[in-house]
Design goal:
The chain is mainly α and 452 residues long. It contains 19 helices and 2 strands. Its main location: membrane.
């Protein structure tokens, strides 16, 4: 028998904050502006300004011209943000967080696999966010890097204690300041006469590899979207807020980053220098640096919620304190150089995961998923996930030492030479969805007496 989903509440109820454990009430207080502001802020990232180098110079593919990278950014972000919007819908419909929803897809015990992977990727993202905050803060105001890391870690952890309050703060104050800052930096950079969008030494040959990098940044939010959309008043609002809010601002952020990189010859370590050269560049960069804690906040909070899928009675506040401490310690010893490699692995894991969910939902529409902790295992869905992951890696092995080498060797051994126009993200999504749909149909036949 399935355990009932936590009871939703409305804005008129007494509960206006997330309960400490999964069995508590679920406030439904977030409208379009609340969620749109949240996703819009997540789309703007200091990490994105430098990380867009993964689009301009995709791993395992020829470098792009700046104009090609801009188009790849737009295409990749539109695809990725639509995937994020889709992943936000089940949380709004059921009131359950992302990893709990996977109990209905994989079963209670098997949902621990993506939960652990999600914890690993979120700790990685949270760590990188603290690193880039420290990098920008040190460049803007000076001081020891470790002090910026510690300060950002403390602020991040405190924000996770009242997550819905954090979202309301973003809507009321932060989003307007961020919009002004990004618009100003974009105007300044694109008005520089020395900026050349055509560029030398690049081409369009690696377009889809670059687009995959943009998709990978967006889809990293897929396994956390329902952690926040579960508090949405409407399912349609959850989809539109995530798709529009995130998509628009990631495009703006990446385009600003590409312009800055073009001005410094593709040197990711110097990406903030052209911004600081603007008359009000320091003010704009400080606004973005202080706001960056919303990225690390989202990562720490969702890490805690993912852990709760393994330990439902664990107190989210205690988990946030522990996780915030962990990423702060890690950030003291990690560099930004590992970012692009990290992205390639993320995309290969979570794009096909969404494909499996979509394929299964199409076949089992109308059925109520079992979200109980010990829901029956569905190993065939794990098979579909793995098939999708393999499809991604065969097309785009990325650049992770060891991991990518093994996939490249497998591709060579099989004599596979994917065409340059093929997107690893789209292929893995479609393959995973089709395989999942076929296997889900097989499951249904076995469940009906007298068939199969």
């Amino acid at each position: 028998m399935s355990t009932p989903t936590p009871t939703p509440t409305t804005a008129t109820d007494r509960h206006d904050e997330v309960a400490p454990t999964l069995d508590g009430p679920v406030p439904r207080t977030l409208g379009f502006l609340d969620q749109g502001a949240f996703w819009a802020n997540l789309g703007v990232s200091l990490l994105g300004f430098a990380g867009v180098l993964a689009v301009l110079q995709p791993a395992g593919a020829p470098p792009l011209t700046v104009s090609a990278a801009i188009v790849a950014t737009v295409v990749g972000t539109l695809i990725g943000s639509a995937m994020v919007g889709l992943s936000a819908m089940p949380g709004a419909a059921t009131g359950a967080p992302a990893m709990v929803l996977l109990r209905g897809l994989f079963g209670g015990v098997l949902s621990w696999i993506p939960s652990v992977l999600n914890v690993v990727q979120l700790v990685g993202w949270g760590t990188f966010e603290l690193v880039v905050i420290a990098q920008a803060g040190t460049l803007a105001l000076g001081g020891p890097t470790w002090a910026w890391v510690l300060g950002a870690g403390v602020v991040t952890t405190l924000l996770t204690l009242r997550p819905l309050g954090m979202l309301r703060l973003l809507r009321r104050v932060v989003t307007i300041l961020v919009a002004i800052s990004v618009a100003y930096l974009a105007w300044w950079l694109f008005s520089r006469p020395e900026l050349r969008l055509g560029g030398d030494g690049g081409s369009w040959a690696g377009f889809w590899a670059g687009a995959d990098a943009a998709i990978a940044v967006a889809v990293s939010w897929i396994p956390v979207a329902s952690d926040f959309s579960r508090h949405s008043r409407r399912v349609s609002t959850a989809f539109s807020a995530a798709t529009i809010g995130y998509g628009v601002t990631q495009i703006l952020c990446f385009v600003v980053g590409l312009a800055a990189l073009a001005l410094v010859g593709g040197d990711g370590d110097a990406v903030f220098a052209p911004m600081l050269a603007a008359p009000l560049g320091l003010v704009a960069l400080l606004v973005l640096t202080l706001r960056e804690t919303d990225q690390s906040f989202a990562n720490v909070y969702s890490t805690a919620v993912s852990v709760q899928n393994l330990a439902p009675r664990a107190d989210r506040r205690v988990l946030c304190l522990v996780i915030g401490t962990v990423i702060t310690v890690l950030a003291l010893g990690v560099t930004i150089d590992d970012y692009a490699v990290f992205l390639a692995v993320i995309g290969s894991v979570f794009v096909p995961l969404l494909g499996v969910g979509v394929g299964d939902a199409l076949v089992r529409r109308g059925q109520t998923p079992d979200l109980s902790r010990w829901a029956p295992s569905r190993p065939l869905m794990v098979v579909a996930w793995v098939v999708g992951l393999v499809a991604y890696q065969v097309v785009n092995p990325g650049g992770a030492p060891g991991w990518s080498d093994a996939w490249s060797a497998l591709r060579d051994a099989l004599g596979i030479a994917p065409p340059s126009w093929l997107s690893a993200s789209l292929l893995s999504f479609v393959v995973a969805a089709l395989v999942a749909a076929g296997l889900a149909a097989l499951e249904r036949r076995r469940e009906v007496p007298g068939t199969g």
